[in-house]
Specification:
It is a single chain. With about 130 residues, this protein is an alpha+beta fold. It has a single domain, classed as Conserved hypothetical protein from pyrococcus furiosus pfu- 392566-001, ParB domain (Alpha-Beta Complex). The chain has a four-stranded mixed β-sheet with strand order 1-4-2-3. The longest helix is centred in the N-terminal third of the chain and has 13 residues. The protein is globular and about 40 Å long. The relative contact order is 0.26. The mean pLDDT is about 90.
Length: about 130
């Protein structure tokens, strides 16, 4: 499979509850649910793996990380990966990009080609820093 064609067009349905679960560790459950709804409604955009990692401040996981290796195996077997779900950062407030779901998939894609465009859904936090409750 061509490294540039290893993504589905839309996230898997189970990615939204996974994102909500992660976000609920960072904010109230009500806010996390509202943000997951915003992610569900967001349009798909594309960003490079290297830029997503830089904006999030997260390290690149090694290719032998169990979850990254599993995603690399999926691509080698011709399976497509689900787009990632992101919450926008804010440079003025020193808030990094939050990878709500898909960190391992971003790392796997980086190992294949750091310049490949990754499909993403991005929801921004309102100016107050959290969704309206």
């Amino acid at each position: 499979m061509d490294n540039k064609e290893h993504w589905t067009h839309e996230p898997a349905e189970h990615d939204y509850p996974a994102a909500e679960n992660y976000l609920s560790l960072l904010m109230t459950q009500v806010s996390a649910h509202a943000l997951a709804d915003r992610l569900r409604a967001a349009a798909v955009l594309h960003s490079k793996a290297k830029d997503l990692l830089r904006a999030s401040g997260l390290p690149l996981l090694e290719a032998d990380n169990v979850h990254v290796a599993k995603d690399l195996d999926k691509v080698r077997e011709g399976q497509r990966l689900s787009p990632v779900l992101l919450v926008g950062g804010d440079l003025a407030r020193d808030l990094p990009l939050t990878i709500a779901d898909g960190y391992h998939r971003i790392c796997a894609s980086y190992h294949l080609d750091e310049n490949t465009d990754i499909p993403c859904k991005l929801a921004d936090l309102p100016l107050g820093g959290r969704p309206v409750e």
